[in-house]
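Hey,

Quick one before I head out. I ran the complex with DGJ overnight. Inputs first:
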Amino acid sequence: MPIDFNNKTQQFHIHNEFISYIMYVLPNGELGHLYFGQRLPEGRDYTYQKTNMNHVLKAYTADDDSYLCLEDTLQELPVYGRGDYRGESLRIKYEDGSYINKFTYKEHYVYDGIKQHTLVSMPHVHDEKKCGMTTLEVILLDSYRQVEVSLFYILSAKTAAISRHMEIRNLSSARVVIEQCASLNLDLNEASYDLLQLDGAWSRERHPSIRTLDTGVTSFSSIRGSSSANHNPFFALLSEHVTEDLGDCIGIALIYSGNFNARIEINQYKQTRAQIGINENGFHWNLESGECFETPQAVVSFSQNGLNGLSQNMHRFIDYHILPTPKRDEPYVLINNWEATYFDFDEKKIVEIATEASQLGMDLFVLDDGWFVGRDSDRSALGDWFVNKDKLPEGLAGLSRKIKALGIDFGLWIEPEMTNIESILYKEHPDWVIHHPAYPMSVGRHQYVLDYSRVEVVDTIYERISACLVEGKVDYVKWDMNRLISEPYSSHLSPDQQGELFHRHILGVYDLYNRLVSAFPHILFESCASGGGRFDLGLLYFAPQTWTSDDTDPVERLYIQNGTSYLYPLATMGSHVAADINHQTLRKTSLSYRSDVALFGTYGYEMDVTLLSDDEKNIIKKQIIFFKKHWDLIHKGSFYRLESPVIPSKKNVNDLLSWMVVSEDKKQAMVGVYQILTKPSPNVQRIYLRGLDPKGEYIETATNSFYSGAELMTFGYVLDDFYTGIASDLHDKLGKSQQIFGHGDFTSKIIVLSMKEE
Ligand code: DGJ
């Protein structure tokens, strides 16, 4: 049984072959935490492992048990006002104006599988791949207030991860107001952690930063209405000396796409409290008598094998328990017309691009922004999802027919959460926009956010969008979202409900996703928010891939995809080969470099392929064949960061970044090595591979060279290709469109290895 309860010691031990999560009922009835980490033997009592000490100047829970002070007791549901002066995980305001709570253990249930969610529209862990999951529900009651909380722990049998969330039920006859509710609260005995988080901005998303935590509170959050490009709802706590491959780390991520808060507090006794949940700023929820509120779920994972181990745990968890069952379990390569045409296209141009793309071996054409009436720039028409017959005389149906006649699929861009003032929708329903009537409306990209807390808004957009998807026989949807919420106010909600707006809005977004995904089960959804502005586990539940960034420059993408990989699997990262010169950075790079970077993602193209030379077309044909041949390995293998700028290895003396994927059976592997800036008089550089079978004999396909797995991992793979200033025929070679690894800035090398069969 993966969940043990010892009646005598009142200890819960949640475990699988990788991890243990241990908690117990405290002497005063509240739920204490004991341990989270590497698997510990089951059937043992760990409650002797005290977490607190008798100190002066503390508030004790009772006179007869002076050791129980909540201030340094590790807890599962810390609350406000009873002697724990750290941040609470649940704060409820009562009719009398107080916030005090005492939740004590009432009962618990263990369910085989996942306990049915109350709020079915919210993204949540699933077990469609039948890995095996077990749910523990611990019910705690505040008998003074008649408010009940269920803490849910859902354990995956096959990954080192647990999801946690809570339900709050109002059993009293009066309304109570939830002001804060962290999905996960993890109290830890130690405080010697570094914090890794993923920060950024538009076009520079998920750049990791690492800082040492010290006494006090460290937090980051979003109040933008979406998870945001600025901070991702994820962090990792790294014990001392953690590297990509060694050391203990804990990762925590929220399965949610709206405002969130991550908060890590270290107290004066060197204990750590880590929390993640809905951002309490701008939030409150009225819980009427008899009502229940469910928080989003959070996932927590532990690894002893450094950050690569943690990422692999998370990748596996996301693959098994978050992503929808794949619509197509086969390689496909898409082409998107955004950077090729922007708004300036007609049917002829689109069909030309699609025709060329199909001849190059691509499988899906995606028509981006600009296909509906009035949409010739980003100033107008969002919300009016009526086809522009000037651009597409035969409508979506006609265009789709022509594209499908080429033997490829048809995809469509939408941005359903928005409108422009210049639109029929806004003229008919100005109150459907989130704004406060007393204030001027702030604007972003000339557009405004529709109030998805109103079901009639979701209904209308659903009708309009689904008509387009039906007409165009659409196979793929790129769901964009290009601005943040300001003046958060809904004319539809009562004054005391305004604090519910952000959460209700994102629930409305999930509602539309649910409806579209159910009505069009064959459609593959890719989410996008000005690139990767809403790359989170909430949306991955509906849309299994996300446009990682609007930045298609391969050098920037190296950093962005590298940062993204700390939590998200390669198969979720939208990656395209774009035109030269790059539109975001104006940097020039070779076609091979651009492709080698995009290879570690979903892979596609975003350029006007009709303008390519024959040479370039031949290269692209080979790139597509190569990607399709290795798709299975890239999307399903285990991913390793070999040389990452986040924890730079001293062995990287030549400004390289390097990634690797290894198949589950360790028989296939691929390594990408990327030179960023060339260094003069380079050193001999080795790359130390990971995850191979040390006893296996591997052949490098391109050179027919043989290596043992042990040799590649411990002696290293020698990159002997660096330019030293002496090469004779270099300049002739560099004149060609093919690059040579190590000979100049932005060159790359892909190494393919297969294990020799016995
Ligand atoms: C922002 C997206 O990130 C781009 O890829 C493109 O779809 C534009 N929006 C279209 O307006």
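The chain has a mean pLDDT of 96.

Talk tomorrow,
K.
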